[in-house]
Design a protein that fits this description.
With 238 residues, this protein is α+β, with helices and mostly antiparallel strands. It has six helices and nine strands. It has helices at 3-8, 47-70, 89-110, 143-150, 165-181, 221-230; strands spanning 23-28, 33-37, 75-81, 116-122, 128-134, 158-162, 192-194, 211-215, 234-237. A hairpin with a 5-residue loop joins strand 4 and strand 5. Helix 2 packs antiparallel against helix 5 (165-181).
């Protein structure tokens, strides 16, 4: 198995346990088979799905790093902090979003193919840092400190070269671990976000012979399954 395949390998303990999840029914008429599946909730607060989400983003960080390097790019870690006098997360996030939009426009003019994946680190005192894996080097040594500061962000900012795709994956996983363990994570903030130019993992799903349908809440599933069995269909649940 490749490293990315190992990341997605699940144990029984990783099965989503969130209650009252929707049910999907899939019918394969050619094989006279009916499947009933409860999709995972994908919520970060879910103990199992939080781990799945972290594995997904770790894999995407590794894959994106690899593809960008193949394209001739050099990869970097960046850290940009919120203003040191702001200790309210919502206020800091407001200035961060406003300031980042302006910085991003500057960077796109300098680095047309600028790509990144970023993780928020929320501190107990209300402050936060934003950590990037990116193919962009700041225009000069002072830019990473002066440009964010001019947009009401912090000045304790850093940029360093990263030489290994696995270090990029570790970097993302490290800060996602902190985000997952933070029980007070603000609903208004994403834990992780890529740019539109960050490479996506390849789609490997084969074409399915099944016809999928969402089952209405309140449906008596046992009764419905028995109806399918009486019609001669094999019924499986997952």
């Amino acid at each position: 198995m490749s490293y990315i395949e190992h990341l997605f390998a699940l144990s029984e303990k990783d099965v989503c346990s969130t209650q009252n999840r929707a049910v999907l029914r899939a019918i394969d008429e050619s094989q006279k088979t009916v499947l009933y599946i409860r999709p995972v909730c994908k919520m970060w607060a879910c103990p199992e799905c939080g781990k799945r989400n972290k594995r997904f983003w770790t894999a995407r960080a590794i894959y994106g790093h690899e593809k960008l390097v193949e394209n001739g790019d050099t990869m970097y870690f960046w850290t940009i902090t919120a203003h040191e006098e702001i200790r309210n997360f919502d206020e800091g996030l407001h200035y961060w979003r406003k300031g980042w939009n302006a910085l991003y426009c500057q960077l796109k003019r300098i680095i047309p193919d600028f790509a990144y994946v970023r993780v928020f680190e929320h501190h107990k005192d209300g402050a936060f840092h934003v950590h990037f894996v990116t193919n962009g080097m700041p225009p000069n040594e002072r830019w990473i400190k002066d440009a964010p500061r001019a947009k009401h962000m912090g000045y304790m900012n850093e940029a360093e070269k990263v030489r290994s795709k696995y270090k990029s994956g570790f970097y993302i996983a490290k800060y996602l671990n902190k985000a997952i363990s933070n029980a007070t994570w603000p609903r208004s903030a994403r834990r992780i976000q890529p740019s539109q130019t960050w490479p996506k993992l390849p789609e490997n799903a084969p074409e399915s012979p099944y016809d999928w349908k969402l089952i209405a809440f309140g449906t008596d599933l046992d009764r419905e399954m028995n109806v399918w069995r009486k019609r001669g269909y094999g019924v499986q649940t997952f």
